[in-house]
Amino acid sequence: MLDINPGLIIWTIITFALLVVVLGKFAWKPLLQALQSREQEIADSLKKAEEAKKDAERMMQENKIAMEQASTETARLIAEGRAMAEQLKNDIVAKANESAKKMLDQAKDEISREKDSAMAQLRSEVAELSISVAEKILDESLDNAKQKKMVDNVLQQLQKN
Amino acid sequence: MFSWIVFSDKNVGHTAVDTTHAVVDTVTQVGAEHGGKENLFTQLLHHIYDGPELELPFLGHVHLPHFELLGINMSITKHVVFLWFAAIILVVALSIVARKNLKNKVPRGFGNLVEVFVMFVRDEIVIPNMGKRGLKYLPYLLTNFFFILVMNLLGLFPYGASATANVSVTAGLAIIAFLMIQISAIRAQGFGHYLAHLTGGVHWALWPIMIPIEVLGLFTKPFALCIRLFANMTGGHIVILALIGLIFVFQTIAVALISVAFALGIYMLELFVAFLQAYIFTMLTSLFMGLGMQTESHGSEHGHGH
């Protein structure tokens, strides 16, 4: 059983040597090449994925910052707008008040002026009317001095009333 | 006991072998009655021995050519045929797989299986034992692994034979392993360092003792490889044959229940051993090559394993 057969040893060595050469060319080279290229591809893909993840994270961070900025900006704008509106409102109200007051004053002035002039006119009218009435009544019997005294008396009575 | 020697004897011709068979067959039939158990086992064991004829289904026994070259018997024996059969299977299957794997980005089925083994040899055997520079010996170690594996597995088929159950075949493989171990060591450390290594780094006065020990150490490693593979592959077959033989020894079909069940168990064990031994042979070759390739290694790890 432990008999050594030199022919078989030689056949084994020849077969093995040929097999190494043939398999080396037709099997191991393409197999290992396929394996290596795939491993390379996987490594590259993983690296790319890692990079993409980092990019995404960075972009998310950026977006977050931009959003925060936008929201503060919005708040600021709203506050500003509100303040401006308040100001505007106050201004308008003040202006309106002022103009109203002015108009009121003007109206008051006008009224008083009108009143005064009406008063004066009335006075002169009344005086003339009284004179003419008195003239008619007295039928021009009285002199001017007496007339004046009588008018004054009438006026004084009018003022008292 | 060793009547198989008759087969390897070139003087025995065609007819003589046939006659032997006829005799053995009849002896087996009546052998047990006459206490001819020796003939029974001889008959059964002849399945694992090398011989000048092939047993084929439907065709019966086919005789193989016998020839000599420079006085060496270079006959094409059963194991040579299975050697070539394994080689052809490997070349055909692996070149197809390789071409397919190169085309497909994701290998499927058999291509994937082959790739698992290739990756195993590369990442679990070569790189841990020899490092990155061992990768240039990867084609040798891959061929070693697959060739041994296929030869081991061929013995598990009906009409098949394990060429690795022949000590001459494992010796051939071990000689190649021996050459590869020396070549890788010389290439890695240079011839001077390689020779210096053989002195074991001791005082020159001890060299007459040290050098023979170191040189012997170079041969024991591949010798162990040779015997380990041969014995493992032969052992399983013998156990199965012995279990089946029990049926004929006891001359009762009832034994078959136990025999066949046990033989099936051993068969499965052999299936495992076929893979295991291919792995061990390749792993140890790679380990020895890796040890020899360590350039700055003198002294401590000089134990040389075996």
Strand percentage of chain A lies at: under 5%
Reported for the largest beta sheet of chain B, the result is:
2 strands, antiparallel
Structural class of chain A: mainly alpha
Using CB atoms under 8 Å apart, which protein chain pair has the greatest interface?
A-B, 34 and 49 residues
Q: How many strands, which pairing sense, and closed or not: the largest β-sheet of chain A? A: none
What is the number of beta strands of chain A? Answer: 0
Radius of gyration computed on alpha carbons of chain A: 61 Å
Tally of separate helices of chain A = 2
Total helical elements of chain B: 9
- Structure classification of chain B: mainly alpha
Mean pLDDT of chain B: 77
Q: Which residues of chain B sit in consecutive blocks of at least 5 with pLDDT less than 50? A: 1-37, 297-306
The gyration radius over C-alpha positions of chain B equals 23 Å
Task: Summarize the amount of helix of chain A as a percent range.
Answer: over 70%
Averaging pLDDT over every residue of chain A, what do you get? 86
Strand order of the largest sheet of chain B: 1-2
Cα(first) to Cα(last) distance of chain B is 33 Å
3D shape of chain A: rod-shaped
The string of secondary-structure elements of chain A, in order, is: HH
Shape of chain B: globular
Number of DSSP strand runs of chain B: 4
